[in-house]
Amino acid sequence: MKQEEPRVHLKKLVLEKYDQIGKSSLTDDETYGCCGPTNCCTVDYEVFADDYTQIKGYNKDADLGLGCGMPTEFAQIKTGDTVVDLGSGAGNDCFVARQLTGNNGRVIGVDFSPSMIQKARENTTKLEFTNVQFIHGDIEELPLEDEIADVVVSNCVLNLVPDKEKAFSETYRVLKKGGHFSISDVVTVGDMPETLKKHAEMYAGCVSGAVDQKDYLNIVKGTGFKNLSIRKSKEIHLPDELLKETLSDNEYEQFISSNVGIYSITLYGEK
After folding, report:
1. Strand pairing partners for 84?
2. Which of 91, 98, 152, 194 is the most exposed place for a label (fewest CB within 10 A)?
């Protein structure tokens, strides 16, 4: 039997994982944020999450604890803007963005998980919003016209996309001239042992697909964006027991004394 191309296989795994989380949210299963599809709480998706509860526009039903930052905090969204959210999940960042755009703005969420789209649409109906819509689609091939968005946001999604260059090229395409993005994502810094990275993925699901920060920034620059700046950076501290289980004594000492690690960053860039 012919094996699937690695990128195709990765996309299928990500879709399966997050679609199951979406299905759990539809049935009000409170374990989705921690356990995801495994129902065993070995993967904690909330390690990275910021606290949205005091933010205007926050909706509890839309917050599945899957983010790694708060991209709207640095997105400079204005009244009347059209905002696109890549990997919109149950709609958390879209509803915060809608609070900022007001009734005259427009918010479009794109996600390739059918259950997430269903959950987000249910939330929109409950909130009676007429200027927020959710579209099923692939971030590598956005089902949106050119130059539709004033602002693009995304929260802990691009690191999961196999072809990041294509995803950022699509982001560039849908942004208007003079538009900008604010994206929260997970990156690694320094030469992280591959074994530790794999263990970290089991500890915190959002590590999957993360690349080195320098490589990440080079990808974004290569797609044409300018005036890039990291607006926020937060180190994700792996528990000691995980480090000691994975590394030798010497490797452990080297790791904790180095700058190597996993970080949640919020990156801003302009077209």
Report:
1. 108, 152
2. 194
CB 102 within 8 A of CB 79: yes
> Quick check: is 228 in a domain?
yes
User: Which amino acid is it at 68?
Assistant: C
Residue 43 and residue 22: Cα distance in Å, rounded? 16
Average pLDDT, consecutive stretches of 10 residues, N- to C-terminus, the chain (271 residues):
52 60 57 40 61 93 88 98 96 97 97 92 96 96 98 93 94 98 94 79 70 96 98 88 85 84 95 98
Q: How many domains does the chain have?
A: 1
Can you say how many angstroms the Cα of residue 54 is from the centroid of all Cα atoms in its chain?
A: 20
73 with 266: CB under 8 angstroms?
yes
Torsion angle (degrees, nearest 10) of CA 222, 214, 142, 93: -140
Q: Find out whether 79 and 101 touch, Cβ atoms under 8 Å.
A: yes
C-alpha distances in angstroms, 256 versus 47, 48, 236? Answer: 19, 20, 13
**Do residues 261 and 243 lie in contact, with contact meaning Cβ atoms separated by under 8 Å?**
no
The predicted pLDDT at position 259 comes to 82
Provide the β-strand partners of residue 135. Answer: 110
Look up the CATH number of the domain holding residue 171. Answer: 3.40.50.150
Question: Six-digit token pair at 64?
Answer: 């599945």
Give the range of the structural domain holding residue 70, as residue numbers without chain letter.
6-270
pLDDT of residue 146: 98
In the chain, where do the E strands start and end? 82-86, 106-111, 132-136, 149-155, 175-189, 226-236, 261-270
Question: Whose structure tokens read 């059209």?
Answer: 82
1 domain residue, yes or no: no
